[in-house]
Amino acid sequence: MFCLFALPVFSQRGPTAVARSGEGAHALLRRNGLPDTRHFQQFLTLNQGRLTAKGGLIAGRTYRLPARGKASQAAATPARHPAGSSAAALHAPVFGSKYSRVRVLDRSMRGAVYYLSPGHGGPDPGAVGKYGPHRLAEDEYAYDVTLRLARRLMEHGATVYMLVQDPNDGIRDEQFLKIDRDEVTYPRQRIPLNQLARLRQRITQANKLHARHKGAYQRLLALHVDSRSQGQKIDVFFYHHANSTAGARTARNIHRVFTNRYARSQPNRPYSGNVLPRSSLYEVRNSHAPAVFMELGNIHNTRDQPRFLLPDNRQALANWIYEGLRADYKGR
Ligand SMILES: [Zn+2]
C-alpha cells in the first residue's frame, strides 16, 4: 500500500501560533518573542513537513513554537523527569507505537542536523540474503538501524531528518523483518525504482534542507548492509569524499568507536573495518552536508547475519554510530 500521510519525523506538544497572511517564519517567531537563530532552527525542526517547498508558512495554519529561553534553559540541563511528564518528550510516530515517545535526556547534540539515508527502499529492497527459509532484505535492516540511530540522536536534542520513512513500520524488535515496498522519501515522495533517480530524489531533498539550516553543523549518513560473495565476512566500512575533511573526520570518529567496542567485545578477533575515500558514491559526491556512507556487513554471510538479525545488535550498531557522531560534534 502506498500511503500519502504527512510524516514529520517528530512533533512536539507545546506552544503554537497561527501564521498571519504574508508572514514568514522569522516574523512569526519575533512576534512570539523568539528572535534567535536557535529559535529559528528549532522552529524548522518542530514543523518539518509543514512548511512550503520554499520554507514559507501558510496563512491560517497552526505552527509549533520552540520553548522560550527560560524553558529551554531548564531543558538543557540533563534533567530526570518523572515518568508521565511530557515536559521534555517528543512524539515521533515514525518510530512506531512502542517507541514513538522519545524522552529528551539532554541537549548535548542541540544545533547538530542529520540527514539519515537508509539504503534502498520503496520498490528496491537492495541486497537480499537468505537465512533458512527467510529472505533478508537490505533496505529493511538498514531502515531499522537508521531509525534506532535517529531516536538516539533525538534523545540528545539533535535535529534529525529521516530521508526515507515507512508509514507503518516503526522500530521492530523482531529477527526477521517483513519485506515491503511502501517506504517514501521525505516528506512523502514515491521512491522511483531507477537507482540514480532514487538517489537524486533524496539528495535533492537533503540539499534543500541543508540550505535552510545554513551555518549549522550538518552531516549526512547513508547506512547499507552490503552484499558480497557468501563466504566473505566484512567488518563495518566507512566511506567519505576524498576532498571532504569534515566527512573524513566524522567517518574516523565513528570508526574509532567501532574499533574500541570490538576490542572490548571480541578481544581475540582484530577488527578489520576501515575508513576509505570513495568519492564515486552518488550520495557522498552530491550531498552538500559532509557525508559518511557505511556498510554494516555482508547480508549473505552467515557469521555477519547475527549482527543485523538480533534486534539488540541493531541497537548496538545504532548506539556506536551515535557515540561516534557525538564525539565528532563535540570536537567540531
Ligand atoms: Zn546497499
Automatic annotation (TrEMBL):
Lineage: Bacteria, Pseudomonadati, Bacteroidota, Cytophagia, Cytophagales
Catalytic activity: Hydrolyzes the link between N-acetylmuramoyl residues and L-amino acid residues in certain cell-wall glycopeptides
Domain of life: Bacteria
Signal sequence interval, chain numbering: none
A GO cellular component annotation in the UniProt record: outer membrane-bounded periplasmic space
Designated name of the protein: N-acetylmuramoyl-L-alanine amidase
Organism: Hymenobacter lapidiphilus
Hydrolase found in the keyword field: yes
Keyword DNA repair: no
